[in-house]
Amino acid sequence: MSINHLLNETHDPKLTSWVESANQSGCDFPIQNLPFAVFKKIGTNEEFRGGVAIGEQILDLAAAKNSGVFNGVALEALAACSKNELNTFMDMGKSVWSALRLALSKALASGSSAQDKLANCLVAQADAEYALPCNIGDYTDFYTSIHHATSVGKKFRPDNPLLPNYKWVPIGYHGRSSSIEISGSDFKRPKGQTKAPTATEPSFGPCKRLDYELEIGIFIGNGNALGEPITIDNAEDHVFGICIFNDWSARDIQGWEYQPLGPFLSKNFASTISPWIVTTEALAPYKAQWTREETDPQPMPYLESTQNRTSGSFDINLQVLLETEKMRGAEQGPTPLSQSNFKDSYWTVAQMVAHHTVNGCNLRSGDMFGSGTQSGPNPEEAGSMLELSNAGSEPVSLPNGEERTFLEDGDNVIMTGWCEKEGAARIGFGLVEAKILPAE
Ligand code: CA
Questions:
Q1: What's the pLDDT tens digit per position in 101-135?
Q2: Contact call for residues 314 and 342 (beta carbons, < 8 A)
Q3: Residues with catalytic roles
Q4: pLDDT tens digits, residue range 297-328?
Q5: HSE-up of 130 (CA within 13 Å, CB side)?
Q6: Of 4, 163, 314, 388, which sees the most CB atoms within 10 A?
Q7: How far apart are CA 104 and CA 49, in angstroms?
């Protein structure tokens, strides 16, 4: 079995749009992508509302609703997308998401008779600001990269890096959604309790080991009732889409506070997401086989299915870049730090959903999962400074002569994601960035 049954006319790599910028090679938002965000024009009193990216433009979904172009289910979906959060639309479920995608694909395609009416519904991305795409009621952070778990485990527990539950349980913890913000939300370096290994007592002050985590954010579309688990084969039907996610981490605070209940104040001072949610349907060409080493424990039945084996992985390239204050001053542009791919994850999105609900826990529309830091099998594919600098012992050299062990004030961290392969249109996620301001 291949992924072909997941594909439809909206994925056709030959499709082009009458929005010319969508047809440029290397563009993140060709007509095959159609990701969702919540936006308004910068500096106006307009209401935030839903939008779909097409090339360098945004199709204003509230305006599209009133354009006279759409009817039926697509029109109902557009009414839901006209609000300042997408929860209602996300709760409508896969058949509605798919109906709107098809209608938008047809209306934005080259030669569409809707061009004249919809041309008035475009807003340039350069003129837009974004809000969170939905109310994120609950946020759960997983730990799905075995490469990250092993290298971090070595730093905290050299003799026992990978705990015995790792290969059986998709490990996660309940995070806080209140501190998740949209790309561009700069934040102050957190303060807290830390304790150096050699010190007899902890001290209080600004975090000295501030780090990023290269993750994806997974948005739940329609949830489940309390007490009714989502089975693995239905799991992806509940996943609206994916964004790029920086789960900032205060390593020195984490090292002191994490036992026995896990991360707390080291994680909930800031988390930043990219504005665009790339839908699960748009990602269909980039579904990939998922395997488990024969020598490893195989998943328990509730985490196992043929579908998960044949197409449970997502082939998403992830990259992190750093722009220091000095680089900004010299207008040098950011420098890449590392690159990895979500297909190297030990657990799939479907396994995360099935595991999260197997005890009856209810997910709700707009809930977000973090994938956990995505580090690849090679050291240069590390998704955090903790790994790249070997816990601060091996500074990373930057092209302008600067060095970093952890992040410094003024550093702007930028993350991007994209999918590309033969026979499919390249699609991208845009970017997420935020700058570290000095502690007060
Ligand atoms: Ca994390």
A1: 999 999 999 999 999 999 999 999 999 999 999 99
A2: yes
A3: 148
A4: 999 999 999 999 999 999 999 999 999 999 99
A5: 29
A6: 314
A7: 17
Q: Pairing mode, if any, of strands 180-182 and 271-273?
A: parallel
* Straight-line distance from the first to the last Cα atom of the chain, in angstroms, rounded to the nearest whole number: 57
If you measure from the C-alpha of residue 215 to the centroid of ligand 1, how many angstroms do you get, rounded to a whole number? 7
Q: 20, 55 in Cβ contact below 8 A?
A: yes
Q: Which two tokens stand for residue 324?
A: 């220091």
Gap from CA of 216 to ligand 1 centroid (Å)? 10
User: What is the Å distance from ligand 1's center to 42 Cα?
Assistant: 31
The rounded distance, in Å, linking the Cα atoms of 1 and 178 is 42
- Give me ligand 1 centre to Cα 372, in Å: 4
Say whether pLDDT at 157 is over 90: no
Structure tokens at 123: 């807003």
Alpha carbon of 154 to ligand 1 centroid (Å): 17
Residue 371 burial (CB count, 10 A) = 29
DSSP-assigned states of every residue in 174-221: EE-STTEEETT--EEPPEEEE--TT-SS-EEEE-SSEE--EEEEEEE-
All residues with CB under 5 Å from ion ligand 1: 141, 213, 247
Q: How many residues does the chain have?
A: 440
- Residues 241-296 pLDDT 10s: 999 999 999 999 999 999 899 899 999 999 999 999 999 999 999 999 999 999 99
pLDDT reported for residue 259: 87
- What are the tokens at 152? 């971090």
- Where residue 69 falls (left for φ over 0; alpha for ψ -120 to 50; beta otherwise) is alpha
The stretch 346-372 carries a mean pLDDT of 98
Confidence category of residue 1, pLDDT binned at 50, 70, 90: low
CB distance 284 to 310 below 8 Å? no
Query: What count of other Cβ atoms lies within 10 Å of the Cβ of residue 157?
Result: 11
Q: Does pTM top 0.90 for this prediction?
A: yes
Please report, for residues 6, 99, 229, 267, the alpha-carbon distance to residue 305 in angstroms, rounded to integers and kept in the order given: 17, 27, 16, 33
What distances in angstroms separate CA 162 from CA 150, 155, 382, one per listed residue? 5, 11, 17
